[in-house]
Amino acid sequence: MRVLVTGAEGFVGRHMVRDLHQAGHTPIQLVLDQASLPEADAACDIRDGATLRELVERLRPDACIHLAGIAFVPQAWEQPEQTFDINVTGTMTLLDTFRHHAPDARILVVTSGLSYGGATGEAPISESHPFAPDTLYAASKAAADQASLLYGRYHGLHIMTARPNNHTGPGQSDNFVIPSFARQLSAMRAAPADAVLRVGNLESRRDLLDVRDVVRAYRLLIEGGTAHHAYNIGGDRLVTIREALELMMDLTGVHPALEVDPSRYRPTDRSPLLDTTRIREHVGWSPQRTLRETLADIVAEACA
């Protein structure tokens, strides 16, 4: 298939393009700015309907994996109007373009498991669980998710949504906690005795998936997922940020003193634990990489 990947220049987008290539598909890389990825096939703001129409007509994709959007939770608090404009309006502009110019395409809109909120109890929650977002980022993703599924049903389009939990891996920005730890620990290897690592709340709990497992899930859904369905993507347990940090300290051999930085501290929170029965049954997906393997690759990249 010819698969349009929006946000191809991003952390997940680059892994997505690689996975599609390896699986024998032809990825079509759509970016916001050509300078961010010179080899991309096209550049366009997803809110620009006229340019999107020209691109879809010219490139004729068979499918689309929609990754473009604001993905950094703190940015949504600082830029709420832009967040909803890009994450919701941009998504609807993209879907409307496909409705008119590639109505037979299979479309996966990537939203977020955070749409369910954090206080969901200890039992895994299914796709029928009500949304209860507790950040503006999650609220924008919840809106995009519900609007996309409704739009697909109303117009008879093959639209699905994916609701992934937190994922990390090589190539992720230092704005996120795991690569930030990796970079700091790598820098401390020269003077481990005097090292102090500034941290936020280490008791927050996360479902830390490997980005390579996540993009494989997206590709399997494009290949065989069912229209008008949402799919949870997650692991089978949550870990604290402290557990992840301790693994990374073992991997680097650096065990610094820990100092809480108030600017990094947030109240204890957690990812929802997701029931992934549907994606396992529909396309046979399950995570393959362990957390230690993922962290080892991130550390290796930081130390290179």
- State mean pLDDT (0 to 100 scale): 93
Principal-axis shape equals globular
Give the C-alpha Rg. Answer: 19 Å
> From the 3D coordinates, which CATH architecture of the domain at 2-167 and 210-236 and 273-288 would you assign?
3-Layer(aba) Sandwich
In whole angstroms, the N-to-C terminal distance is 35 Å
Query: What would CATH call the class of the domain at 2-167 and 210-236 and 273-288?
Result: Alpha Beta
Strand content: 15-25%
Alpha-beta content class: alpha/beta
The CATH superfamily of the domain at 2-167 and 210-236 and 273-288 bears the name NAD(P)-binding Rossmann-like Domain
Q: Number of DSSP strands?
A: 13
The name of the CATH topology of the domain at 2-167 and 210-236 and 273-288 is Rossmann fold
As laid out across the biggest beta sheet, the strand order is 3-2-1-4-5-6-11
The run of helices and strands is EHEEHEHHEHEEHEEEHEEHEHH
Low-confidence stretches: none
Percent of residues in helices comes to 40-55%
Short description:
This protein has helices spanning 11-22, 49-59, 73-78, 80-101, 136-155, 177-188, 211-224, 241-252, 277-283, 291-303; strands spanning 2-6, 26-31, 42-43, 63-66, 106-110, 158-164, 167-168, 196-199, 205-206, 209-210, 230-233, 239-240, 257-260.
